[in-house]
Amino acid sequence: MKFRSLLFLAIIPLLSGCSADTFRLFNPVGAVGSVEWRFTVIDVGVMLLIILPTTVMIAVFVWRYRKSRNAEYDPSWSHSLGLELMMWGIPFLTVIFLGYASYRSTMLVNPYNPAAINYTDPANPPLQVDVITTDWQWVFIYPSLGIATVDDLVVPAGRPIKFWLTSTSVTNDFYIPEVAPMIDVMPGMRTMDGFQVNHPGHYEGFSADFSGAGFSWMQFSTRILAKPDFDKWVAATQGSPNQLSYAAFTKLAEPTVNVGAKPAYFSHADAGLFMQVYNAARAGTVYAIPEQLNIVTSPVDYTQVKNGTN
Amino acid sequence: MAIKTLAPDEQPKLWQFGQEANDMISTKTLGFWLYMLSDALIFAGLFAAYGVLDHPMNTAGGPTEAQIVHPIAAFWQTLAVLTSVFAYSIATVAVKHGYRQMVVLCILAAILLGCVFLALELLDFADLYAHGATPQVSGFLSAYFVLIATHGLHMAFGILWLLVMVVQVIRLGLTAPVVAQLLNLRLFWQFQAAIWVCVYVFVYLKGAI
Amino acid sequence: MFVHLQGPYSFLLGRFTLAAIPYNNAIIQFAFAFTAIAALLVIGPVLYFRKIPYLFREWFTTVDHKKIGVMYIILGLVMMLRGFVDGLMIRTQQVMADGPHSPGFLEAAHGYLPPSHFDQIYSSHGTLMIIFAATPILTGLGNIIVPLQIGARDMAFPTLNAISLWLTAVGAALIMVSLFVGDFSAAGWVGLIPLTELDFSPSTGVDYWMWAIQISSVGTTLNAINVIATIVTMRAPGMRWDRLPIFTWTTLSTSIIGLTSFPILGVALALLGADRYLGTHFFTAGMGGNLMLYTNLFWIWGHPEVYFLVLPAFGIISEVIPAFSEKPLFGYITMVAATFAIAGISWTVWLHHFFTMGAGPLVNSFFSVATMVVGIPTGVKVFNWMFTLYRGRLTFATPMLWAVGGLFLLLIGGLTGMMLAIPAINYTVHNSVFVIAHFHCMVLLIVYAAFAAVSFWFPKVFGFRLDETTGKLFFWSFSAGTILVFTAMFGLGFMGETRRLDYLFNTQWWPALVIEEIGIGFYCLSLLMFFVMLFVSIRDRVKNAATADPWGTARTLEWLTHSPVPFYNFAVTPHVNSRDELAWRYANNLASTVPDHFEEIHMPRNTPVPIIIGALAFGFGFGLIWRIWWLTALSLLGIIAVVIYRSFARDKGYHLSAEVMTQLEREPPLGVVSESQYLSEPPLGASGARPLGHAGAH
């Protein structure tokens, strides 16, 4: 039937780049990512046990019982207790199984306290990273190391990473495909996330919750370095001439589109900067968007924002 | 299940002749009950918002619940609205017996008592404003004012409707459409009292404890 | 007023100034030219053939449920066209703006749409498609078909019916006006919070979105009241609950959902409006607001809303498949039970729209299980349709193609929905284009069902069949587009593409984006096919004239009327003897039996009150958007005055005598009928009023 013959076209997107890098969600790294992938496979597998036979049966019936084929016709058959029991019962049992799987997996990947990661091993304590989103950049502060970055998350391999996240403006969604599960980052609120990756690698994180005109440029690079490389990077950053005081932060938090997601590095961030930002948001501090950004007929202002010179 | 076939001499009824009995009053009142269900859900949403924002962390340093609720003053409001409903109930009894003058008088009494309710509410708001407790101060106060003001708006529309019904009863008499409207108004007015009771309990009484 | 507004403000014009009209934006110029030409193509012939009085008399003041339904569907199709153009623009921008070296045109750094414009386009795409295309089409279908299926002469509240229509039209008009006067919301069709607060959306865009939805929601709620009252009180004698057609059952449960859930949307938007207009702190980040409250309130409406849309679609499929399988629907009782199970459970799943907000594993697990539980009755429906096909005699007329196509879409949508129901999976695909592809499978199921319904019942309403050949071309080109766009989109979801991007940062996505663009090309082709189908069908309308049952195998009561349905529906109310009444009459050779005599009937009278209320509602909305307070106040007072005036009206109906009925039935009126010639009949009763105690019609 013509309808099904078009399904071959579904192959095309898969051919577009079968490298591991392309289908990020099929290639998780780290404890949490692996759990997510495992349960994706389980869920799809179980559902296909119902969906595939149903699809095939519908296709067969549609073919077989066309009027022109003069197949068996039984207009009085419109009820069957046995079939009803099956069609309520089998999905019901499936939902029990998948419901339990859902519960298990949620406990394992819970961003606040993932069971898949061990935060309490004294030999391998978590590295705390504070994340603040602005319009439209990511600020990463390392309270234990005193340094901060913009749009570049650098962490050591093999160590659990624990995040505290807040926003100065609107809601964003912290996400690094393959590596970290999503969590909404909201102003005036603190939330948590975590991951652990044991091998070095380079990934791309971004915001998965639309946050305004500069949203499309809100990526951050995620570099997982082996321990010696990480220590070298920390030392280099601690020599950076820039400092992230609260005053410097408020300048950074003005609406800015960081075209190309160029990173910035700070050798010193104010202690308690995260909580200061959090409290300021709760007290009503807002970095308002100028109306020109929202009107389409203002190319000059948009260009300034485009170039990050606004 | 096969289609039921007829016995050879069975004469099924295919068409319905005779007066189309579509009771207008019961249809109109059913429709109004359905509308009140949607109105009940508006208040459910507002109570939900109040329930969420009725928390110390939503006062943003401004007045707390205990500081702004005046359950004694609100008690007089409660009396006003309940006696207003009672007056209207007497009007309904008068409708049943066809005493037009009594109907008009009782509705006027209901209007008067409703106005007393609104006046007391506005006085309370003015007092809060004078003390700097406005809806713009915090999320909690926003929820408090909007919940009570929404009920007050319903009361105001109800009073307008009561006035219109006085005119209709005088000019048109107790005809079927007028009676249908009076029955709907009864439901609306009683509902406003019921919502006020919920407001009184969950906002004023609970807040004062 | 109470809040700090950016930009100029005057008492007379509020925030409105000439600068609000984007006359130097090339895309808006093009849109204006296109709209102006389309409007001229429609208004031109109307003026040339002097049809304005006819339109006013027969259509704009009508309370006939069939004409109101037709206008709803026309409104929905026009808005779907605009929504499709929005979708086309989104796809084109995304395929052009992939990668840092992609070129920029007009005012954009990449592609041809700067971010704010792109954001407005996808916000209006969502709002238009859900609220102003799908809802009006399904509401219109319910309007036309439900009274016919239950053997009633009209809805319970005909004037209210018309008011609902015009309120919906006013909402759509506001969105159309936003294209040329001011801007539209750039915060998504859901109104992402706190992005919709005045600080982050300082222009009138969010206000347009808010009031368009609020005003049309009033119409939808009133329509729900109407439908429920009609089904409960106006069924023909013998139409017991277990004989009710399945489409009527689904429309009943849909209306219950609509009646109870739309008020919550009203509250969510009203509180947002309070924040924007009065400076309150319901949803602000600071000063004690709680922005998660908006998300919860919105989705407490939002999830029942999608079942509000999909249940009528299920009802349509449940009517079309039995009709073209020449078999009764399998498992009628469990279908009804499943419908109400879906409606009930839909209230308990809303959090699955924001699993990532951080509610914790126990809360997330509860909503996850509830979401999966609602899939059980949905599955039951699929199996019942499958067993209806089994041992049937299937004919693949256009409606059947659409219905079966919709069935396949439901299977894919259901599978991907079960994936999204698991938080661990959701944390990887939330807000990605995987979610977009999932819900587009579901809304396309609704669209397929809508097209199935339109082609199925078109001959009944208009008296001639749509052309089958071009109709099938329309179906196949539309399906080709669907397969290409959304298969590629599922793939992109797994590649990690998130939604709402005006600039795409990963060039690996480009091949799939190209496939999507080719798919959109097929959709454009299908749009052309749609117009060709209309042209050919209208041209051949005499050749394709329809009898009462043009398909030959229809089963339910509405097919007993003439085609097109006369304005009074049934000359004599039928007495119902069975489920699938027409199939029963066919089986017992009673289908062509007509009444032997006729009696006087009562009809509701046309009135200009609904369209006047609509016009005043437009003034109310426009005034609120631009903060022109005098316009708002006057419009509101006007609406109140009109309603009060109407409540004093004595006669709202007229009657058709037995002689007139006999003559009408001898030669049933062809074409969509002019009923106004009968309005000169005397009104009911000299005083127009009946004393208390006289039971009976008005």
Can you put this structure into words, describing what you see?
The complex is a heterotrimer of chains A (about 300), B (about 210) and C (about 700). Chain A has about 300 residues and is α+β, with helices and mostly antiparallel strands. In chain A, about 35% of the residues lie in helices and about 20% in strands. Chain A has 2 domains: about 25-70 and about 80-110; about 125-285, Immunoglobulin-like. Chain A starts with a helix and ends with a helix. In chain A, about 45% of the residues are buried. The model of chain A is unreliable at about 1-5 and about 295-310 (pLDDT under 50). Chain B is mainly alpha-helical. In chain B, about 75% of the residues lie in helices and about 0% in strands. The longest helix of chain B has about 35 residues, at about 140-170. Among the domains of chain C are: about 245-275 and about 290-380, no CATH class; about 395-545. Chain C is built from 19 helices and 2 strands. Chain C has helices at about 25-50, 50-60, 65-95, 115-150, 160-180, 205-235, 245-280, 290-325, 330-345, 360-390, 400-420, 425-430, 435-460, 470-495, 510-540, 580-585, 610-625, 630-645, 660-665; strands spanning about 600-605, 655. Residues about 680-698 of chain C have low confidence and may be disordered. Chains A and C meet through helix 2, helix 3, helix 4, strand 7 and strand 9 of A and helix 4, helix 8, helix 10, helix 11 and helix 12 of C.
Question: In a nutshell, what does this entry contain?
Answer:
Chain A is of the alpha+beta class and 310 residues long.
Task: List the defining traits of the structure above.
heterotrimer, A: 310 residues, alpha+beta, Immunoglobulin-like, six-stranded mixed β-sheet, five-stranded mixed β-sheet, 8 helices, 13 strands, 35% helix, disordered N terminus, B: 209 residues, mainly alpha, Four Helix Bundle (Hemerythrin (Met), subunit A), 6 helices, 76% helix, flat
Instruction: Write out the CATH superfamily name of the largest domain in chain A.
Output: Cupredoxins -  blue copper proteins
Please identify the structural class of chain A as seen in this structure: alpha+beta
Which of globular, elongated, flat, extended, rod-shaped describes the shape of chain C?
A: globular
Instruction: Write the CATH fold name of the largest domain in chain A.
Output: Immunoglobulin-like
Strand content of chain C: under 5%
Task: Provide a count of the helices of chain C.
Answer: 19
Find the biggest chain interface.
A-C, 117 and 123 residues
Q: Beta-sheet strand percentage of chain A? A: 15-25%
Mean pLDDT reading of chain A:
87
**Computed CA radius of gyration of chain A, to the nearest angstrom:** 26 Å
SS-based class of chain C: mainly alpha
Q: Total number of β-strand segments of chain A?
A: 13
Under the CATH scheme, the architecture of the largest domain in chain A is: Sandwich
**Level of helix content of chain A?**
25-40%
Mean pLDDT of chain C: 92
Query: Numbering strands along the chain, what is their spatial order in the largest sheet of chain A?
Result: 8-5-1-2-3-12
Total separate domains of chain A = 2
Spans of chain A with pLDDT under 50 lasting ≥5 residues? 1-6, 296-310
CATH class category name of the largest domain in chain A: Mainly Beta
Q: What helical percentage do the residues of chain C reach?
A: 55-70%
